[in-house]
Design a protein that fits this description.
Keywords: Signal. This protein has about 270 residues and is mainly beta. It has one domain: Outer membrane protein transport protein (OMPP1/FadL/TodX) (Porin, Beta Barrel). The protein has helices at about 1-10, 25-30, and strands spanning about 60-65, 75-85, 85-95, 100-115, 115-130, 135-150, 155-160, 180-185, 190-200, 205-215, 220-225, 230-240, 245-255, 255-265.
Length: about 270
């Protein structure tokens, strides 16, 4: 019975359904889900223009466990491939339980202009599947830019599903969230990055996020962040050894409890 109720809650967009959002790696999650103006391989799941800051082929995998529902989890992967002044990003994200799952596959193309401006276009394939009821699919687009004002400031904007695409389901009205994000990152020093993001998802309140990444040692970074709507707290750390990166994060939600997350990445 609990599994059936969980499926219904996820399908009808309750508080559990709010988890089915753009999923970022543990570094960006720990910074308050700041995926708009932080250059990272997981920008493929946020503002795709962010992968323009990746200088070498990078691949990452991620796992998140939602402790309020012991069977609910999320698995994701991201790949960034830079070449000349362009980049290609590939993302895959699966969220759900055995009876209910959402899959999102993304392909992004990013172009750099003059070393200051990056513009990214992303196509997404969505699949929603419920056991014994079949599956429904949809396509959506996202577009974003990242502009380096100077060596300290980055300005970013991202629109996700501005065309208001929906799932192809004649029986149930299933929508894909449409959101707009405006963000700013500030390099306080070579070791401290402060990022903030103002976002609006249609039919939801405006949300504000702020996060910090502090490189305490050459091998260790500490991170923290907050979001306002809903109010959430985030914390985490990262270990960087040669070409291998391990990131851990935990999100604290007043309704959903704690959600631990682990990301492993390798730079080729």
């Amino acid at each position: 019975m609990n599994r059936i109720l969980l499926c219904l809650a996820m399908l009808q967009g309750s508080v559990v359904g709010s988890l089915a959002q753009a999923h970022l790696g543990a570094r960006l999650t720990a910074m308050g889900n700041n995926g708009n103006t932080v250059e990272d391989v997981w920008s493929i799941q946020g503002n795709p223009a962010g992968i323009s800051g990746i200088s070498a082929v990078t691949a990452a995998i991620d796992y998140t466990k939602y402790l309020f529902a012991t069977e609910l989890s999320r698995q994701a992967m991201a790949i960034a491939i830079p070449f000349q002044k362009n980049s290609i990003g590939i993302g895959l994200d699966r969220y759900g339980i055995a009876e209910y799952s959402e899959i999102k596959a993304s392909l992004a193309v990013v172009k750099q202009f003059g070393g200051q401006l990056g513009i990214g276009l992303k196509g997404n394939y969505h699949q929603l599947k419920i056991n014994n009821y079949g599956a429904t699919t949809a396509f959506s687009l996202g577009v974003g830019f990242l502009y380096r004002l100077n060596k300290w400031f980055l300005l970013g904007f991202y629109a996700d599903n501005p065309a208001l695409q929906k799932y192809k389901s004649p029986a149930v009205k299933l929508t894909i969230p449409t959101s707009f994000h405006l963000g700013l990152s500030y390099f306080i020093s070579d070791k401290v990055l402060l990022a903030t993001d103002l976002s609006k998802t249609l039919q939801l309140p405006i949300d504000v996020a702020i996060g910090i990444d502090y490189e305490l040692l050459s091998l260790l970074s500490l991170r923290g962040g907050l979001t306002a709507k809903p109010f959430k707290q985030y914390a985490g750390f990262g270990l960087h050894y040669r070409k291998l990166m391990l990131d851990m994060a935990v999100a604290s939600d007043p309704y959903l409890g704690y959600s631990p997350q682990i990301t492993l990445a390798y730079v080729f």
